[in-house]
Amino acid sequence: GSTIGILGGGQLGRMLSVAAARLGLRTHVFDPGADAPAGHVAHKVTTAGYDDLAALDAFAESVDVVTYEFENIPTEALDRIESIRPIRPGREALRVSQDRATEKAFLEELGLKVAPWAEVHDPDSLAAALESVGTPAILKTRRFGYDGKGQARLSAPDAAGSAWEAVSGAPSVLEGFVDFRCEISVIAARGLDGAVSCFDPGENVHEGGILRTTTVPASVPGSVATDAVLLAARILNALDYVGVMGVELFVTDAGLVVNEIAPRVHNSGHWTQNGCTVDQFEQHIRAVAGWPLGDGQRHADVVMENLIGDDIDAVPRIAGESDAALHLYGKGDARPGRKMGHVNRVRR
Ligand code: ATP
Ligand code: MG
Ligand code: MG
After folding, report:
1. Is the CB of 138 within 6 Å of ligand 1?
2. Kindly report the CA angle at 320 between 315 and 322, in degrees rounded to 5?
3. Which residue has the least CA distance to atom 20 on ligand 1?
4. Which of 112, 171, 184, 304 lies 20 to 30 A from 218 at CA?
């Protein structure tokens, strides 16, 4: 059988490993941290840094294809791996999504709507950006942000100084605040043969920049759901993408606005584990292993709730609820803001 290499051993790598095992495939996880959640379930784990070229070489040589659970992998590590084995999804998807400015320019090039935005690299360009974008606005670092980290909200231009400090003067983008009706996301998959399959859009609620719940079906008209799926397919086709992608969207009176894309399985797609015959993790493994995509049709209504930090204390109670499917990540330390698991509440 073949072996899938996975860069990153967090919960996404863990759930990818479980899906691969179900298909009779092995996984080899590469992660710098000891005791990575994916390490508990993978066939093999390498604990090494992304600057350890010998470890990267050995990792790549031991697998048939390499995928990843996060987009911020250093370029040199990717170059090294790619000289040995294919990386799926491919480099273009990583290049575009590693940098918010590159990503927004790419989406605009495709004719898609994004929030009004401007590049910021110093206090002067921030002042100019506030002129053109206006307030309220959000300053976001171009790279490395997730779960709302590396972001500062500005209700008025006089907050420029503290916002610039909050992002530590890192290269950033200023985004106009989008007055959305709701947030939805499309989890889309594209196979090696170019076939595209999208899961039903889910409706997302964030708290403090972190995803709290995803609900399917989303409370949007069918035409909006169709638009969302078609828009996602355009993004995947433009990138000649192979694998699963998360496309985060704002639903506004003027149509859909793309917030951001993630070239990987996505937290807002966890509902598929209990709502579909083939979930996002299996779909991703199928795509990167060159299998046909599976049946992603939704067969139930689902509310996915993240268990963040202390929420994990509710597990004994949730375990006694009917229709609740628990997915726990095996993380020891329930720090505030840390994703410890999720529960899918299913209604057929
Ligand atoms: P992740 O990658 O974990 O989804 P992130 O750190 O990349 O998060 P964003 O998706 O940029 O963060 O923002 C997090 C949330 O903040 C969004 O889902 C949305 O609720 C809100 N938000 C971000 N940008 C805007 C915007 N321009 N207008 C309105 N709300 C926004
Ligand atoms: Mg993001
Ligand atoms: Mg986001």
Report:
1. yes
2. 120
3. 206
4. 112
